[in-house]
């Protein structure tokens, strides 16, 4: 076998390397903390910790900037970053995008937190704008469900209930039951901080900046963009409208 055949045979066994994102599709990379139920147990307040949320938001922002995203959304230990159909980073190679987003998220979070944490990553593809809106509605609904469950569970645990008791009380129960359980203890779920119930959005906003033109000696307005951290996201239909505006700005 000559050297070229040898090289080609072995390179062909990089079996998934030719996989690329579907042309023209919206892409979401979603990273998720590995084993964060354990990782957070001794490090962060339950069920919500402002430092943990700040580290996740910082990681979301870094992913948005580094990979050229349009919108990043974080809740719990996950971050979804949206990329436009025209996105061409790494020639849309799946392995590159998945491995580097996981590596980058792991490094950013670990540096912020001061302990080694790892993230996995996966790709979601949407061919229609409505798919993208539905995707982020889906993740936000997950945030709301987990927040209600987590608050109800840790309220019971703080009252002295065991893991088994708290789990049994909540098992199969309705949203109304969990809301009522909190309300009886003086907590109105609708007044819990929005970032805990709805997650945090990270996106670009434009603003006007005064600049000085040395040629004409005039003050001129320049349009710049900066990252906005939104801890008070709209929900339901208002979130749809908010997302559609973001998508329309891209197209
Ligand atoms: N204490 C604390 N835990 C948090 C916070 N945010 C997220 N978590 C934890 O993160 C976990 C995320 O759940 P999963 O991603 O389903 O579980 P995981 O243990 O990370 O498992 P894998 O993702 O499958 O590796 C939850 O169980 C929470 O315990 C927080 O603010 N405080
Ligand atoms: Mg996880």
UniProtKB/TrEMBL annotation:
It is an enzyme of class 2 (transferase). The keyword GTP-binding applies. Its EC number is 2.7.7.79. Its cofactor is Mg(2+). Residues 131-218 form the Thg1 C-terminal domain. The keyword Nucleotide-binding applies. Residues 9-116 form the tRNAHis guanylyltransferase catalytic domain. GO terms for molecular function: GTP binding; magnesium ion binding; tRNA guanylyltransferase activity. One of its GO terms (biological process) is tRNA modification. Pfam families: Thg1, Thg1C. Keywords: GTP-binding, Magnesium, Metal-binding, Nucleotide-binding, Nucleotidyltransferase, Transferase, tRNA processing. Belongs to the tRNA(His) guanylyltransferase family. This is tRNA(His) guanylyltransferase. It comes from Deinococcus yavapaiensis KR-236.
């Amino acid at each position: 076998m000559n050297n070229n055949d040898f090289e080609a045979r072995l390179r062909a066994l990089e079996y998934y390397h030719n996989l690329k994102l579907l042309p023209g599709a919206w892409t979401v990379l979603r990273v998720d903390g590995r084993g964060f139920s354990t990782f957070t147990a001794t490090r962060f307040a339950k069920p919500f910790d402002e430092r943990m949320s700040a580290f996740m938001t910082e990681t979301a922002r870094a992913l948005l900037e580094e990979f050229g995203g349009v919108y990043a959304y974080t809740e719990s230990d996950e971050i979804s970053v949206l990329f436009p159909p025209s996105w061409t980073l790494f020639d849309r190679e799946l392995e590159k995008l998945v491995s580097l987003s996981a590596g980058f998220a792991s490094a950013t979070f670990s540096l912020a937190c001061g302990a080694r944490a790892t993230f996995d990553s996966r790709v979601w593809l949407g061919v229609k704008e409505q798919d993208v809106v539905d995707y982020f509605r889906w993740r936000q609904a997950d945030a709301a469900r987990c927040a209600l469950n987590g608050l109800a569970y840790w309220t019971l645990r703080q009252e002295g209930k065991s893991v088994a008791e708290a789990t049994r009380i909540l098992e199969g129960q309705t949203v109304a039951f969990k809301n009522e359980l909190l309300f009886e203890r003086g907590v109105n779920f609708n007044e819990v901080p929005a970032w805990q119930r709805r997650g945090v959005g990270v996106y670009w906003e434009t603003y006007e900046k005064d600049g000085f033109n040395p040629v004409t000696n005039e003050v001129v307005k320049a349009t710049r963009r900066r990252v906005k951290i939104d801890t008070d996201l709209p929900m339901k239909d208002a979130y749809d409208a908010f997302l559609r505006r973001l998508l329309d700005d891209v197209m």
